[in-house]
Each structure stands twice: as C-alpha cells, then as structure tokens.
Amino acid sequence: MAKILCVLYPDPVDGYPPRYARDEIPTITTYANGQTAPTPMGALGFKPGELVGCVSGALGLRNYLERGGHELIVISDKDGPNSEFERLLPDAEVVISQPFWPAYLTADRITKAKNLKVALTAGIGSDHVDLAAAARANITVAEVTGSNSISVAEHVVMMALSLVRNYLPAHQTAIDGGWNIADCVSRSYDIEGLHFGTIGAGRIGLAVLRRLKPFGLHLHYTQRHRLDSTIENELNLTFHSDVQSLIKTVDIINLQIPLYPSTENLLDEAVLAQMKRGTYLINCARGKLVERDALVRALKSGHIAGYAGDVWFPQPASPEHPWRTMPFNGMTPHMSGTSLSAQARYAAGTLEILQSYFEGTRIREEYLIVDSGNLAGTGAHSYELG
Ligand code: NDP
Predict the structure, then answer these.
(1) pLDDT, mean of residues 22-28
(2) One fold for both 3-147+339-376 and 149-324?
(3) 286 carries an active-site annotation
(4) Comparing C-alpha atoms, which of 65, 47, 49, 81 is closest to residue 6?
(5) 149-324 CATH choice from 3.40.50.300, 3.55.40.20, 3.10.450.50, 3.40.50.720
(6) Ligand 1: which residues within 6 Å by Cβ?
(7) Is 315 a known active-site residue?
(8) Domain 3-147+339-376 belongs to what architecture?
(9) pLDDT tens, position by position, 167-209
(10) Burial class for 53, CB neighbours closer than 10 Å (0-12, 13-18, 19+)
(11) Cross-strand pairs, 36
(12) Measured between alpha carbons, how far is 148 from 135 in angstroms, rounded to an integer?
C-alpha cells in the first residue's frame, strides 16, 4: 500500500458551481505534433468538464487509488515548515502537485522525503522540483506533457489582443458606468502589421504563432534549435539566433521557455532596456524568467507599454506582490493551463502515469523529466540540472 500525497489548489470560495456553464467539452484525442492525449485504462473517476483540479475534485483519482489499496491524502496547505505538506511528506511514496499551486520540492524537503519515489506534476513544468536533488535521490519526476499546451497558447493570444487593444481598462470603463471613448482608445492599437516574437517555439510557442498567423502580424522566434524549414515557410517566420536580436526587433514578446538555473532572470534590467520603447510583454511560462522589480520600473517609466501573464514567484503571490498593481498590467492568477478543458486531460494523464507506476510498466517517454538518476524523456530536452 502506498501513500499518495496530492497538493491541489483550494475549492471555490463559494463552493462548487451548482451547475456548469456548459454541459460538455470536446474530446481531444491527438495533439498537433501527433502525440496522443492521455489514455488511462478503465473509466475516469470524473466527468470531463467537471472541476477536478481543486481539493474536493482530487483529480478524480480517489476510486482508482483506494480500489488498489492505496491511501490518497489531498491537501492545499503547502508552504512553510509547519505546513501539512512538510508534516506528511516523510511518509509519501508519490507526491502530486500542480504548477498553479506548486508544492515546492526543494533539496531540503527531498532529504526529508525518505520514502518518495515519484514526483508527479499534474500539468506541465516541473521547475518547482529541485531536479538535481530528485535525480540524486533517484526520484522519478514526470509531468503530463502536451495536456494544456493549447490552453496556454489561447491565453497568450487573448493577452496579446487585450494588451494592445487596451481591452481591460475599456471593460472597466463599461463596468463603472462611463462612456469616455477617448480614455478607452488613447492606448488602443490594432495588432495587424506589428512584429510578434516568441522566445521558445516549442509546443506552446509554435501553437501561438500558428494562431496569430491570420491576424496579419510579422512573426519571429528564437530558440537554440531552428525549426524545420517547412514550418518556417508555412508561417513566414523570421528566425533570430539569439534573444538580443529578437527583442530589439519586435513589438510584442512572448516568453515560452522552461525555467532552469540559466534561464532565471533572462529578462533582467539590461535586457528590458534593449527592447523598443512601447514593447508589450507576455509571460505565461514562469515568473522567475523576468526580473521582478526591473519590470515594474520599465512599466512605470513607459519603456514597456504593457505586461500580461499568469505566472508569478512564489505562488500563490502575496497580496503585496508589485505585479498585481504595476501600471498597464493584464495579470491573472496562474490559470491558463487549468481551464476545465485542460483539467480533463491532465487529470487523465495523471491517472495514466499512476497506472504505469503501480502496474510496473514504463511511463511514457514524453512524460518523463527525471528517471534513474538523470534527466530523461522530455526532461532531457527541456531542462538542465544546473
Ligand atoms: P517545450 O519544451 O515544448 O518548448 C520550450 C521551447 O523553449 C523549446 O522549443 C526550446 O527549444 C526552447 N528553449 C529552451 N531553453 C531555451 C533557451 N535557453 N533559449 C531559447 N529557447 C529555449 O515546452 P512547452 O511549450 O510545452 O512549455 C514551455 C513552458 O511553458 C514550460 O516549460 C512551462 O514552464 C510553461 N507552461 C506554463 C503553463 C501555464 O499554465 N502557464 C502550462 C504549461 C507550460 P530549444 O531546445 O531549441 O532551445
């Protein structure tokens, strides 16, 4: 019998919705790169489209795990030495956490997690785990690669339009009973004809480029490996061999690379200063990729025209976090990858990974981040151990 410690975000403040806005969600079976969506054995423990990402939803795992004789403990109290997470960690064989509400598995915590065999990310992005420490402790780290890539890509497109068109302030004017059109439009532009560049054109970054193509933008990207020329030609992409070249050229920048030691603070004061005046920034990758206070200064001075994203550090962000109130921001709490549609896929993927683990079959290669003491699968391409 294994103890599974699952850390999820808290339930809705006013309780579960008595009725969902929609009765069903589309079934997605294959992703753009040909990868199949999760295929767990047997029935799911939830109806796709239900809220399962919070504590009471338990990712729909309870029946499967308890039928197998395992103990599932679901908590949200995760931070600090007196948290339930720290108290329960030493007995856990599997820890499940989400990037939206990350249970930080630091090297110190990994030392205390004497029984830990698997750290599973219900979603994408395992930077909340000290991967080098996990590798040393022979812990398998896995995530549900692909499960919410399109969810995030849609959020990025929404944020690009919202920032440039000045949607959120104009919406606030409507709510407040106002009608001063000049106020609404004095920062409002079309995105058509602007130059858009993504730092990282992987699953999400490329999906963003594909979705923006019909808007008539000039599309740019940079990453370490160049995309296939058929994709570059199809989207009329301009490749930049480094970040500096891209950021000096474009009007809207999307950050879509993983966080690992050498990408922390990638956009620092000096890099922000090299961007064109009036650049918009979008970051639905990780908060630590951007130097927090340098960004606030760049927005206040007017050098950066707007910043939107849904990733912060730490998470949850404190009520005083300066990104909540800095000018021209379109921040959301970390929610792009946990729409009800995304939850259905990453909860099914979490079940699939647990089934592989408990039934002794190999976890899908694309889900692996660390295995057998080293980076593996997707992790070998996406991360550095530092
Ligand atoms: P992928 O691995 O598919 O793509 C990441 C891309 O970044 C790769 O194509 C890689 O290309 C490029 N890259 C990596 N390091 C660098 C670097 N140092 N400089 C330039 N390019 C680099 O990941 P996804 O698209 O699936 O996800 C990207 C990130 O988005 C995740 O790591 C995660 O942090 C975040 N995310 C956020 C979510 C949310 O809810 N907000 C949900 C899902 C993911 P190359 O190797 O050629 O450099």
Answers:
(1) 96
(2) yes
(3) yes
(4) 65
(5) 3.40.50.720
(6) 99, 123-125, 148-149, 152, 199-205, 222-225, 256-259, 263, 284-286, 310-311, 334, 336-337, 382
(7) yes
(8) 3-Layer(aba) Sandwich (3.40)
(9) 999 999 999 999 999 999 999 999 999 999 999 999 999 999 9
(10) buried
(11) 30
(12) 25
SS3 of the chain: CCEEEEECECCCCCCCCCCCCCCCCCCCCECCCCCECCCCCCCCCCCCCCCCCECCCHHHCHHHHHHCCCEEEEECCCCCCCCHHHHHHHHCCEEEEECCECCCECHHHHHHCCCCCEEEECCCCCCCECHHHHHHCCCEEEECCCCCHHHHHHHHHHHHHHHHHCHHHHHHHHHCCCCCHHHHHCCCCCCCCCEEEEECCCHHHHHHHHHHHHHCCEEEEECCCCCCHHHHHHHCEEEECCHHHHHHHCCEEEECCCCCHHHCCCECHHHHHHCCCCEEEEECCCHHHECHHHHHHHHHHCCEEEEEECCCCCCCCCCCCHHHCCCCECCCCCCHHHCHHHHHHHHHHHHHHHHHHHHCCCCCHHHEEEECCEECHHHHHHCCCC
Across 272-291, average pLDDT: 98
283 is written with which tokens? 């970051």
- Of all protein residues, the one whose alpha carbon is nearest to atom 45 of ligand 1 is 224
The residue ranges of every structural domain in the chain are: 3-147+339-376, 149-324
Query: Dmax over Cα atoms in the chain, in whole Å?
Result: 65
Residues 133-177 pLDDT 10s: 999 999 999 999 999 999 999 999 999 999 999 999 999 999 999
Distance 82 CA to ligand 1 centre (A): 33
Q: What is the pLDDT of residues 322-373, one digit of tens each?
A: 999 999 999 999 999 999 999 999 999 999 999 999 999 999 999 999 999 9
Give distance in angstroms: CA of 90 to centre of ligand 1.
Answer: 32
